[in-house]
Amino acid sequence: MSLPDFFVAHKREVLTLTGEHLWLVGISMLLAVVIGVPLGILLSRRPAWKSLVLGGSNIMQTIPSLALFGLLLPVPWIGARADRLAILALTMYALLPVIRNTYVGIAGVEAPVRDAAIGMGLTPRQLLWQVELPLASNVIVAGIRTATVITVGVATIAAAIGAGGLGEFIFRGLAMVDNNVILAGAIPAALMALSADLVLALIQRTLVRTHH
Amino acid sequence: MTDSTTAIEFVNVAYRIGKRALISDLNLSIRRGETLMLLGRSGSGKTTTLRLINRLLDQSQGQVMVDGRSTAEWDVIQLRRHIGYAIQEAGLFPHYTVQKNVALVPRLERWDPARVAMRVKEVLQLVGLPYDQFAGRYPDQLSGGQRQRVGLARALAADPQILLMDEPFGALDPITRAELQHEFVELRKQLSKTVVFVTHDVAEALLLGDRIALMDSGALKGVFAPAEFLLSTDTLVQPYIAAFRAGQQILDSGA
Prior knowledge:
The complex is a heterodimer.
Chain A: H1 3-9, H2 11-45, H3 50-62, H4 65-72, H5 82-107, H6 111-119, H7 124-154, H8 167-176, H9 179-210
Chain B: E1 6-17, E2 20-31, E3 35-39, H1 46-53, E4 61-66, E5 69-70, H2 76-81, E6 83-87, H3 98-102, H4 104-108, H5 113-126, H6 131-134, H7 144-156, E7 162-166, H8 174-190, E8 194-199, H9 202-208, E9 211-216, E10 219-224, H10 226-231, H11 238-254
Helix pairs in contact in B: 5-7
């Protein structure tokens, strides 16, 4: 069976697995941003914690994804369902680029700008929302882009623990030694990574333009 | 003693980091409406002194009085908004237009938008930037001199009675600097502000100051009127006079 024929024949399954994959990536990225951006802001206020948090998330990234899935298996509640486990692991992978870029973006605000802002009487909250976050947004979104692309890729491994997603095709194809089946998972995953990157690149460009 | 003719007063002020004293035994009265130049070399404590006024730094000892009230008693945000602040490199917000940069403090103070717009126009005019031409520009579309003008306009926007200036013309080329210095002299005649101005440039101190406070190694070494300063036989003042005369000689021989 040729690849296009395979897609036509398994249309429903391709769509379902793509949907699952999108869900795993979407929820994980949402969590990574909701946790990572505030952590990055916190680091900019408490530089002493920098090595702890960045070091910690760095180590996280060195753990092979398959091993991390396995290690999280005995964790209560999380280990009970494969998708929870996958989301937790994916979030942990996505955190580093988000935290680091948030921190770097805020630290990159020029000293005179920060000095003038404080000297003219901006409150700490106004400094954050009106100066630091807008000026760092470009770098923060760049971190989210990197994390998203990584997450789309790593999410294919989630199928190994039964969390679904496009990895199902890849593992099945490997077992069947059938390239078509592998590609049926790999191609939509690649397209997903590319389009997510493109969408975020457009957002990034809009941000740069609005700040000029 | 503090009275209505004193805008800012330092009373036995010291500022230390750990055991190192950056400022010690500082007693200084700054009169309402005067331009006081804080003159000194790098590390003399002049910028530290300036930053104690709007509490970008908090003194380790003594009191800084602004308008008769200790800065420790002021709400720090109110204190800062009550005082204009202009610095080297201007520190304009790169993501704000000139209009929005200048409008910053009035907007934070929730002025009526129509009044903000009028005031922005007014202060831009004051610093020699036509509103129609400059209001919509971003800082990276301005020259160094124009950025400093906007920085000055921003400091003046909420019409503060006190203006702190930290080497505002320090990063400019000599011609632009001279231009801005002369305009500042003119501006001073129109506005009755108390100005505290940090500089390491003795010519600038002589040109702009009503009085010159000389600082060295964290201590105030004397306060002089410009004419007094030039005549002073103080061993600390002599190197400044020598530098000033040398500069003049170069100018004279060039002319």
